[in-house]
Design brief:
The chain has helices at 2-7, 15-23, 31-65, 69-73, 75-106, 130-137, 140-166, 168-172, 179-219, 224-235, 238-259, 296-307, 316-325, 337-354, and strands at 265-268, 273-278, 288-294, 311-314. With 392 residues, it is mostly helical. Helix 3 (31-65) runs antiparallel to helix 5 and helix 7 runs antiparallel to helix 9.
Length: 392
């Protein structure tokens, strides 16, 4: 049952899946919406420019039928008259043609948007597979297209029949009207009838547009396994990424441990935290943190420090503050300058004593660590800026 559920396409298409489909020329399209918008534009153009179109076409027709015998056999005159008449016809049809062309180019923006893809016009022999063609003939999409064709026939046919019945008396009355008035009247009736009949297609287009969007989204749905696989391909295998992060941490830890022997002092908690500090004489800036860690890492830092005779100093508050507010390679916060200075002074005095000079120094026991820098102190909840000095 788990395998069956995983095989079901229940997940919406990812952005990558949609982009791949678009590159292949697969976008939602509604022929009903495109047909409706173009026909409505043609009807509107006919309504607005019908009278001018009839006048220009009538003028071209009269001009073409009023040639004399001499003009017909005079090729210069005949050629000039044909050019004039063709120009009149083009001027008559230009406004409506321009409107239809603009709407035809803009109609794809309603569903799917503009798209140019070379993959969609690349020859594909799979499209010539007769078995695949038979499968498409009995598919759900074919059934939907059949239902749409029947619905268009019934809706358009029914509306056309009602319009014809309504205008039946007006059509019979055209025979008694003058030619000019009758021409204007018939163009008006044709435009009105055209708009009403095409408007009936708006019902089909209003249903088909959302259906095509839903069908397209449903077709591109993905299974859970496909989503996981795509995530692996896009972001990398999570297990491999985790392994890489682990290796990076191990490499950083090894580099950090290699710097512990070079430290001047290791400040400890004494068991939970350990921070190794180094200060280069003559160098600009404050002492830097060369290693830090907690629990097992802290124990390893202390072990390496003992093996390399690096001074260990128990200063719990200072160790916690340094561990909380610094990263490896950072200079110590300004607020801890005085405390670290006391520690380094102790370390240098201890070195002199080990060389037989002076008395053994006492380890500093009361280092000044601002309470707000100690993560174990309630005052640290105020989230101070450690780069600033200690409060007055």
């Amino acid at each position: 049952m788990a395998d069956d559920s995983d095989a079901e396409k229940t997940e919406p298409a990812s952005a990558k899946r949609l982009e791949q489909a678009r590159e292949e020329g697969d976008v939602p399209r509604s022929r009903e919406v495109a047909t409706f918008t173009v026909l409505m534009a043609a009807g509107a153009g006919l309504w607005m420019t019908g009278s001018d179109m009839v006048r220009l076409l009538s003028s071209a027709l009269v001009s073409g039928l009023s040639l004399t015998r001499e003009q017909i056999f005079d090729f210069d005159v005949l050629g000039h008259r044909i050019m004039v008449d063709v120009t009149r016809v083009l001027l008559a049809c230009l406004p409506m043609g321009a409107v239809v062309m603009i709407v035809a180019l803009a109609s794809p923006l309603l569903v799917g948007g503009w798209l140019f893809s070379t993959k969609s016009i690349t020859p594909n022999l799979m499209k010539l597979n007769p078995m695949r063609g038979l499968g498409n003939m009995v598919s759900t999409n074919s059934l939907v297209e059949l239902l749409k064709a029947i619905a268009k026939t019934l809706v358009v046919g029914g509306v056309a029949w009602m319009v014809m019945r309504q205008q039946q008396d007006a059509v019979f009355g055209l025979v008694v009207e003058p030619l000019h008035l009758g021409s204007v009247h018939i163009m008006h009736m044709l435009g009105t009838s055209f708009l009403i009949i095409v408007g009936a297609l708006g019902l089909i287009a209003a249903i088909d547009g959302p259906y095509q969007m839903w069908h397209y989204a449903n077709k591109l749905k993905m299974t859970r396994q496909e989503m996981i696989q795509e995530s692996k391909e896009s972001d990398g295998n999570p297990q491999i990424k985790a392994k890489i992060r682990q290796l990076q941490r191990e490499m950083a830890s090894r580099r950090m441990m290699a710097d512990v022997p070079t430290a001047d002092v290791v400040v400890t908690n004494p068991t939970h935290f350990a921070v190794a500090l180094k200060y280069a004489d003559g160098a600009r800036g404050a002492p830097r943190v060369v290693a830090k860690g907690s629990d097992e890492v802290a124990a390893k830092i202390r072990e390496i420090a003992r093996e390399n005779k690096v001074t260990l100093l128990e200063a719990p508050e200072l160790a916690r503050a340094l561990h909380k507010h610094t990263e490896i390679g950072d200079e110590i916060p300004e607020a801890l300058y005085s405390a670290v200075a006391e520690v380094l002074a102790y370390v240098y005095q201890l070195r002199l004593f080990s060389k037989g000079s002076g008395q053994r120094p006492e380890a500093p026991s009361k280092l000044h660590v601002p309470p707000e820098l100690d993560p174990f102190n309630p005052a640290s909840q105020q989230k101070p800026d450690p780069s600033k000095g200690a409060p007055a």
